[in-house]
Amino acid sequence: MAELHIHPPPGNAPVLSENALTVLRSRYLIKNQDGKCIETPAQLFSRVASLIAEAEGKYGADDSGIRQWQRKYYDLMASLKFLPNSPALMNAQRRKMLSACFVLPIEDSIEGIFETVKQTALIQQAGGGTGFSFDKLRPAGDRVASSGGTTSGPISFWRVLSETTNAIQQGAFRRGANMGMMGIEHPDILKFLHAKQNLDAFTNFNISVKITDDWMKKVLKSGKTLHTVTNPRNQQRYLLPRRIDITNYTINDLHKLAGKGRPAPKRAGQYFTVSDIWKMIVKFAHATGEPGVVFIDRINRDNPTPSLGRIEATNPCGEQPLLPYEACTLGSINLTKFVNVSNGKTEMDWPALAETVRLAVRFLDNIIDVCEYPVRDTIRLSQGNRKIGLGVMGFADCLFQLGIPYDSKRGIDFGSELMGFINKYARKASGELADLRGPFPNWNNSIWRTKRKKKVRNACLTCIAPTGTISIIADCSSGIEPAYSPVFVRQILDGSKLLQINPIFKQVADSHGFYSKKLEIQIAKTGSIQKIPQIPPAIRRIFKSAYDINPQWHIRMQSAFQQHCDAAVSKTINFSEKATVVSIDKAYKLAYQLGCKGVTIYRQHSRDREPMSLSY
Question: What DSSP designation does 284 have?
Answer without folding.
Answer: H
